[in-house]
């Protein structure tokens, strides 16, 4: 994606796009750790910040493994979660008296959240491009994987939304109720484990991808920056991974000291992600070879720009300051 931005605009804008993505991963993973820890805390009775730090340590050691280990781990986790959610949704739809008509009230908040999750899950595949040097035949494998995953993700989300909407499940515990036909009274425990695994899988994808991006950017650097380009014999980016995990540990420490809240982290991460995606869409608009792609990219650029300008003024200030620093 960064190469496309460079081709469409300039090398400086390529670096700015990369810095936005890297900045998002300074904050986003910590929010994900805390979400996973909140699910586990009632089950284990351990402090949320301690659980989050344990997840961070697991991420560090997992990312120092070969890339095929990460792929296998993510595939196993997402497959298990996908199967459980699909079977639970089907069981709920079959076992409940469901009613559906064009006049029935829709919970638009629920549906919009599901669509937003699907959007980020699919857009998240942008990060996969940073693994391309470690993938066999990336020009064929990565596009095929993206298409298959996008279809599967969308189908699972739609199935879950239909089950929750049609069966009129309690919105506050909808997913737990969704798997109740499969696990009964153990549903809360299973849901906590699934949430933690899903959080870890997401973090491994993003931190692993961005650590490889940092490693690539530091390839021609000298001095202390060259340390970010250090790799293990198995190809894992040692320097960049240690750097990102150290930043995440510092941010988690600031959360423990009440300097940041989880909402602050989400706002910062979303702002940087949206800024990154907006530039990418502008590049897609400029490089598009068909009117359909061009107009779609233009429409999404407008939508993303509106989302970006609705962010907190402090987030916009940081984004603008970083842009001025890189592009001046």
Explain what you see:
The chain has 328 residues and is mainly α. It has one domain: Amino acid/polyamine transporter I. 76% of the residues lie in helices and 0% in strands. It has 13 helices and no strands. Helix 3 packs antiparallel against helix 10. It is globular, with a radius of gyration of 21 Å. It starts with a helix and ends with a helix.
Through-space gap between termini: 22 Å
Whole-number average pLDDT?
A: 78
Q: What CATH architecture do you see?
A: Up-down Bundle
What portion of residues belong to β-strands?
Answer: under 5%
Number of domains: 1
Task: Give the full name of the CATH homologous superfamily.
Answer: Amino acid/polyamine transporter I
Indicate the percent of residues in helices: over 70%
Provide keyphrases for this structure:
mainly alpha; 76% helix; single chain; 328 residues
In terms of topology, how is this protein built?
Layout: H1 2-8, H2 11-44, H3 48-63, H4 67-95, H5 108-123, H6 138-166, H7 174-178, H8 180-183, H9 187-217, H10 238-256, H11 262-287, H12 291-309, H13 313-327
């Amino acid at each position: 994606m960064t190469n496309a931005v460079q081709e469409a605009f300039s090398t400086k804008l390529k670096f700015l796009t990369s810095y936005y993505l890297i900045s998002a991963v300074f904050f986003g993973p910590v929010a994900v750790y805390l979400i996973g820890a909140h699910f586990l805390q009632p089950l284990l009775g351990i402090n949320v910040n301690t659980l989050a730090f344990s997840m961070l340590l697991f991420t560090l050691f997992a990312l120092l493994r070969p890339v095929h280990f990460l792929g296998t781990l993510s595939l196993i986790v997402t497959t298990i979660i996908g199967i459980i959610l699909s079977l639970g949704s089907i069981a709920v739809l079959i076992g409940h008296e469901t009613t559906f008509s064009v006049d029935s009230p829709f919970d638009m908040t629920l549906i919009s959240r599901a669509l937003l999750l699907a959007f980020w899950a699919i857009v998240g595949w942008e990060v996969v491009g940073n693994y391309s040097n470690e993938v066999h035949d990336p020009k064929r494998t990565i596009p095929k994987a993206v298409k298959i995953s996008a279809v599967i993700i969308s189908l699972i989300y739609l199935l879950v939304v239909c089950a929750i909407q049609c069966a009129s499940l309690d919105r506050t515990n909808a997913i737990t109720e969704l798997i109740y036909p499969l696990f009964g009274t153990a549903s809360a425990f299973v849901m906590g484990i699934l949430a933690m695994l899903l959080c870890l899988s997401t973090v491994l994808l993003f931190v692993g991808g961005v650590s490889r991006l940092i490693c690539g950017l530091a390839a021609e650097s000298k001095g202390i920056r060259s340390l970010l380009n250090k790799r293990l014999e198995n190809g894992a980016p040692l320097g960049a991974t240690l750097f990102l995990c150290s930043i995440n540990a510092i941010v988690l420490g600031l959360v423990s000291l009440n300097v940041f809240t989880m909402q602050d982290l989400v706002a910062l991460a979303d702002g940087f992600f949206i800024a990154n995606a907006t530039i990418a869409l502008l590049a897609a608009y400029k490089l598009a070879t068909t009117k359909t792609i061009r107009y779609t990219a233009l429409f999404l650029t407008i939508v993303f720009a509106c989302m970006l300008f609705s962010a907190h003024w402090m987030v916009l200030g940081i984004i603008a300051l970083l842009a001025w620093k890189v592009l001046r």
